[in-house]
Amino acid sequence: MPRTAYLNPSGMTTPALAAKKTDRPIGNSPECVKDYIHHIKSYMRDVCCSMRGGMGMESHYVDAHLVQRKLLIKSGKNANKCLEKELVVLSDSERKKAKLDRSQLFHNSDSKPKQSVALLGKAGAGKTTFIQRLCLDWASGSLPQFQFVFLLNCKILDLTKSTYSLKGLLFDLSMSPRCEDSDSVFKHILSCPDEVLIIFDSFDHIKDFEGLLQSPAKSHTNTKYTIKQLFSGLFQKEILSGCTLLIATRPKDVLNQVLRKMDSLLELCGFSPEDIELYTSKYFGDASLQENALKQIKTDRYIFSLCSNPLLCWTTCFLLEHQESCNDLPSTLTDLYQRATSKHLQLASLENSSLCKNRKQLDIPQLCKMAWEGFKNHDTHVNPGSSTELLDCALKSGILASYKTSEGQENHFADLFTQNLLSAVHLVQSKQVNEKMVVANSVVHQKKRKVQGESQDVLQRFVTGLVFQKAPDGVSILDSSVNIKAKRKAVETHLESMKPSDLVPARLLELFHCVYETSSAKFAKLLLKNLPDNLSFYGMQLCPSDVYVICHLLRYASTLKRTFSINLQDACIPISGLKELVGLKCIKAFWAHTADTIGLWEDLHQSNDELNLKSAIEKFTLHPFKATEGYHIESLPVLVQIHREKKLPMRYTHRSDQSLRHLQRLEFELGVQNGPELFPKLVEVLPSLQSLQHLDLEKNQIGDSGAEKLAGVLHFLECLKLLNLSQNLIGDAGVEKLAKALASVPSLQKYALSPLLFMHLVSLHNSTIFPDMQVFLFSFSLIRLWNDCIPYGVFEHLRLQDPRIRSL
Ligand SMILES: Nc1ncnc2c1ncn2[C@@H]1O[C@H](COP(=O)(O)OP(=O)(O)OP(=O)(O)O)[C@@H](O)[C@H]1O
Q1: Which segments constitute the NACHT domain (predicted)?
Q2: DSSP label at 754?
């Protein structure tokens, strides 16, 4: 029977480590089941005990933290546009609180069972390594709730065929060893599905997610399905209902339909500064090497920021281990990867001189072409027809990794960065690739649809980095005899034509990275010259190297005498990053998560950094304020509290809520889902918003009780000119309270109400229950029919009621 297994990228295995904990008693399971479980465990102990580069899992694994993420149902004003659940943005302190370790992966903190778990992380964040570690835990007796663990690597599954059964998926396509009596074991598995864990690694390799959840597999028997149908059947509990599913994937928008339905979403956060130190010391066994490497990494802030990605940390350590100690560390990502890749190839050629005598004799352009072909098809797979000499050398060097499949052996590029660097070399160097093609794959494109997300970003950085690389200095992977001037010129012209002010935050960030890769002051200044005054990285999850690159380039602002405001809302930025950005002279105002901002103030206060504390307080702004997520509102009372409780030194306290006091416009867009619950929080801070002119509360279902609460504080809003209360389910009681309160706000010029609310007012007026209606109608006379929904008839009716309305 065909069987799929995957080898460690190194192809090396180390002796199985003895199980430390007692294995789960397999009770009355048939003998063949016990034997098979024993067999899988010992096999997993073998294959999962070493990481890439042959490093031992037990000795070199750094316990990476997970953060529990939650989804939010968006139902605000734009609900129809994006009726989507999205990840709730966490503040730095919430992220710290939401941290979990491996042992808590399947724990139920609430009553909801965790039968489907998604492990999210960018390329190189350590998903595969984490899963390997998890399998090793299981094989060593942890995770006793599972009798069986099946690991599937989506990279090597054939998604086109529809010839698989559930049994085939588990026994033939997973990395489990061959099962002698698969019929009996399968029968046993069907009898205890809740003791089965199925892991789909590299889930994002299922490229086409359209209709993934349609036509699920429904039968356990030998009916033939595609892999996607089997996944769908498992996920929708049509087959093996009760089993636990774990998928590991890079985050992708197209995956949202599946992610939305998962019981738990966990994010692998990469290495913290402490983890980087720990990993480096583990990597370099020798104490003096360790000290030296750590010193180099820690003093180079760019490299240190890259090292928060475990893969890049490994690459940096590898380079430090092999490059001359007098050499500087690379200054760009392109530089890091070309040095590391060249070194890998060089070492492999030295190791086996008969296979590849030296780098020059290897058909590197062929390897680069294969990388590019793969990139175009979103594929890491290497064409099996390639020269064996080349493949052997690339495998030896670790550039390729080998996997055993039912068809034999498959070679894949070992990681996204290596494949994309080689693809970029192809684009820059190959005569078959014209300038237009290079431009299309370098730098950001204003409108072009981004098909490959993260992978495309990395390719762009490498292409830009390579074309602008200074004269090759021995570490360049480019062939110095190839003239790339025309391609460089084309990319330069494109860069010069960019209009950063038209870019959405994600593209703006890409542009920053591409400009950074050019290592050119000229492009940095050009970028800074063309940046809009209001920079927005809204919604971007900024990692440490993003923050470094933004700060690095913004330093050019002083020579151009430019200043900016920066929107870091929903940017999931750690306090250290916020400190760096806010500390920049050119940043005059910033808007970030309020809880993080308060965290930053506290941090600066504790470290007696008076000057920066003063400027961080002064720079904080909330204008214009649009609350779309709970936390936008939840942390506002804390600002007021700081002021009231004098949490900061006196001279700062009065400034701490100035952002609230100066706020002129507030849009509350939490929608029917969260609006009613969070509205009281807003009401709590409204008295502090003395400058508020525009308050938009449309579509939040605040109801009568909300209206009553609002009525209680409206008189504080002395500057309020415009109030939108449309679509809030306000009934008689609420209207009555509101109308009186509205009359007490003389500044009010316009407000919008729902048609129903209008009718309601008119009927109240007609029934003369409400003596103050004239006052109310007076302010109404200023309405500019802002809300087109007001029925003409109602308006006409009101005009008849009041001469002032008639004069409108
Ligand atoms: N927790 C860890 N401890 C030590 N090293 C790690 C850890 N996580 C990752 N690494 C290192 O980083 C490399 C890349 O990790 P891995 O392949 O697991 O990333 P990934 O998230 O699966 O990436 P991709 O999305 O590209 O598949 C590993 O080969 C290993 O060297």
Answers
A1: 115-251
A2: -
In the sheet that holds 694-696, the strands lie side by side as: 625-627, 665-668, 694-696, 722-724, 750-752
Q: Which of 539, 599, 535, 532 is nearest to 569 (CA)?
A: 539
SS3 620: strand
With residues binned 3-state (H G I as helix, E B as strand, rest as coil), the percentages for the chain, rounded to 5, are: 50, 10, 40
The pick from 314, 319, 379 for probing ligand 1's pocket by mutation, whose C-beta has the most ligand atoms within 8 angstroms, reads 314
652 and 608 assigned to the same domain:
no
Structural domain contains residue 475: yes
Taking CA atoms only, the protein residue closest to ligand 1 atom 7 is 126
| Residue 455: pLDDT over 80 | yes
pLDDT tops 70 at residue 256: yes
Token representation of residue 244? 């636990």
Number of H helices, E strands in the chain: 37, 20
Does residue 322 sit within a domain? no
* Better pLDDT: 543 or 6: 543
pLDDT in tens, 75-126: 444 433 333 346 666 777 777 777 888 878 887 666 667 889 999 999 999 9
Cβ pair 321, 345 in contact under 8 A: no
Q: Based on the fold, state whether residues 656 and 617 are members of the same structural domain.
A: no
Whether residues 695 and 763 share a domain: the answer is yes
Q: Is residue 807 within a helix (H) or strand (E), and if so which, with residue range? A: none
Q: Which residues line ligand 1 (CB under 6 A)?
A: 51-52, 60-62, 64, 121, 123-129, 202, 250, 279, 310-311, 314, 415-416
Secondary structure class of 197 (helix, strand, coil): strand
Q: 């939305």: which residue's tokens?
A: 260
Q: Over range 207-233, report the average pLDDT.
A: 85
**Residue in the block written with tokens 């890998």:** 344
pLDDT in tens, 670-727: 888 888 989 999 999 898 888 888 999 988 889 899 999 999 999 898 888 888 888 8
Nearest to 142 by CA among 44, 3, 280: 44
Cβ proximity of 148 and 29 under 8 Å? no
Give every CB contact of residue 487 below 8 A, 6+ residues apart in sequence: 428, 435, 438, 467
Say how many domains are in the chain: 4
Per the structure, the complete domain to which residue 789 belongs is given by: 625-808
Give percent of the chain above pLDDT 90.
37
Q: Ligand 1 centre and the CA of 422: distance in Å? A: 20
Which tokens go with 549?
A: 């690159």
577 and 540, same domain (yes or no): yes
Domain closes at, from 486, 513, 541: 486
Last residue of a domain, one of 223, 248, 270: 270
pLDDT band at 650; cut points 50, 70, 90: low
Give the pair of three-digit tokens for residue 249: 């994937």
Backbone φ/ψ region at 474: left (φ over 0), alpha (ψ -120 to 50), beta: left
Distance 23 CA to ligand 1 centre (A): 27
Pocket test for ligand 1, best of 267, 311, 454 (most atoms within 8 A of CB): 311
- β-sheet bridge partners, residue 198: 150, 245
Rounded Cα distance between 4 and 17, Å, is 23
CA-CA distance, 737 to 704, in Å (whole number)?
Answer: 9
What pTM value is reported for the model? 0.83
Which pLDDT tens digit goes with each residue over 83-96?
334 666 677 777 77
- The reply to whether 597 and 478 lie within a common domain is no
Residue located via tokens 């064409």: 383
Task: Work out the pLDDT band at 284, boundaries 50, 70, 90.
Answer: very high
Closest CA to ligand 1's atom 15:
126
